[in-house]
Amino acid sequence: MTLAPYACDPAQSRGRRFAEPPAPTRTAFQRDRDRIVHSTAFRRLVYKTQVFLNHEGDLFRTRLTHSIEVAQLARSMARALALNEDLVEAIALAHDLGHTPFGHAGQDALNACMQGNGGFEHNLQSLRVVDQLEERYPQFDGLNLSFETREGILKHCSATNAAALEALEPHGVARRFLDHTQPSLEAQLCNLADEIAYNAHDVDDGVRSGLIAMEQLQELPLVEQYRREALAAHPALAQATQARRLLYESIRLMLSAQVYDVLAATRSALGQSGVQTLEQVRAAPALVQFGAQMREQSLSLKTFLMRRLYRHPQVMENMALAQTVVRELFAAYCAAPQEMQAGFAARASALQATTSADANPVARVVADYIAGMTDRFASREHQRLTGKTLLP
Ligand code: MG
């Protein structure tokens, strides 16, 4: 398929940090995707919380199934916009590699532990995973991915972190946060696909968990509109026994509508901007977007999920326990770095021998170790180190 002139072309990639000969049959972005799929961090995603803790049920989304859904949405939109499908797939599959165990609660707890030591941010951590923490290749640390894939993975970055990254990699992936320019359209698309995916699947998981009642969804114009459409087209779905099928059909219609809305709004923005090249994309305002009405509706769905699901007392109760697990693990490893796995323990003792700054030099090693954990490994380690059982 012919790519649009402003799409990312693997033959024009800004390259890898360590030069490698090209693969005989795969483009640079296909190869990036394949490296991500074979990474250790990717396999861990299956046991990491999206919203519901891993032990709460087998059918809830995990970070892995969420990432696959993001890749599906991003790929189908990329194809329709003549953007690079391999690149969006690579970015989507890698975008959450830096997430801690226990979802956002885990990240907040780890960030609080790291105050005074540079903080903790999952986007930056995803980049650390693919740049440094994966240990698979003899020639380099990390996966040595292409610039365009790494750029898409670093979707947010504070000015402080961006300046630190820029110092290590001049004109690198953090530069745009200092210049206030945009990433590729493929990266922009993954961002929006992420939002579309979690809004939709969290409605589904919220209802499945019993924390959101079907009736509550009727206060949401976006969902309600498609529930009515589904019922009009299939009146039998009104029967109580068909409730789940009605929900699936409503979410399916909503997902399709959001995808078509993004395609139309993005095509129109591309047309109006007149961009013809990737360089012009970077200099223009963000071009991948919802139309105005869908943006509003997506935002109100997000607000609804925040109120009804993410801050539901039952979710909050588990999250509070998860935060205690992370905090106590952090304290335990800082006090006894040798309790970490050998590679991390060795990194910690090398630092202890050479650094004498007032900040705790071992903290980043501990944060890397905890961030890499699955929910159940973190629970088990917490139990081993503290003797307490907070989570099953
Ligand atoms: Mg995500």
Describe the structure.
The protein is built from 19 helices and no strands. By secondary structure, the chain is mainly alpha-helical. The chain folds into three domains: 24-185, Hypothetical protein af1432 (Orthogonal Bundle); 197-314; 315-386, no CATH class. Helix 1 (28-37) packs parallel to helix 4, helix 5 (103-113) runs parallel beside helix 16 and helix 10 (185-209) packs antiparallel against helix 13. The structure holds magnesium ion. The site of magnesium ion has 4 residues, from loops. Magnesium ion (MG) is lined by residues 66, 95-96, 194.
Note the main sheet: none
Ranges with pLDDT <50 over ≥5 residues? none
Q: How many individual β-strands?
A: 0
What characteristic shape results from the CA principal axes?
globular
CATH class of the largest domain: Mainly Alpha
- The ordered string of helix (H) and strand (E) elements is HHHHHHHHHHHHHHHHHHH
Number of self-contained structural domains: 3
From the 3D coordinates, which CATH architecture of the largest domain would you assign?
Answer: Orthogonal Bundle
What value does the Rg take, in angstroms?
22 Å
Multimerization state: single chain
